[in-house]
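This section describes the prediction task in plain terms. A model, or a person checking by hand, is given the sequence of a single protein chain and must write out its three-dimensional structure as a string of tokens. No templates, partner chains or ligands are provided. The sample shown here is typical of the held-out split.
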Amino acid sequence: MLLINEDHELYEPALIAHIVQRALKRTKDGRPLYPNIDTVIFTSERHATVKNGQVVFPLIAVEGSGLETDIWKRTIVDHLFERWANWTHTPTYKGNPKDVAFTTLDHVPEKMARQDLWRLQYRRRPYMAHISDEDLRDRFDEAMATSMLTMHKHAPVKPSIAVRDQAIILFTHVMMEMSERGITAPKFALESKRLVAAAGRLNMPPPVVTWFESMDRR
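The expected answer:
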């Protein structure tokens, strides 16, 4: 039985090995439930790790009851692994999948929407993961301050396209970090004084600060 996984990132190697191992150990009336399955082999190129400076992929063999009596079958599995390594031009390393931290690789299509690209970029470099919740809220406020100037009909100034796009990217990244921390949107509900503070950090002109200050009186 050969399990080949290319696209499903949830099929983490250690988890698959554990589930398959439990299944092969199942019995009925004291006999193995799957006596005809000697080995289940799982391989994936959606998960990888680095070994000796080289990217390696999981190639896992979970033995069934048949190998307990027919030891010679292990030779076939070893031969299969050797041929696989030769075909992919990579060395093999033996180990327990539980002891190896495989990382899920992102599937990157030839064409993707801008927001999907921004999300991918943040997953690869979560640069706000180390900052406090208060600092994350400041980044939220800054993105919202710029967005309000962009979208509001009566805003005193209009940001450039480049500034607007940077605010949208920042907002996407902030929302991803909020989701990672379990922070809901109401916790960052906008306040006039915070928008004023954000305008100050972004060196926005005085008319913008005045405009944000006046929001409490509307």
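For orientation: The chain is about 45% helix and 15% strand.
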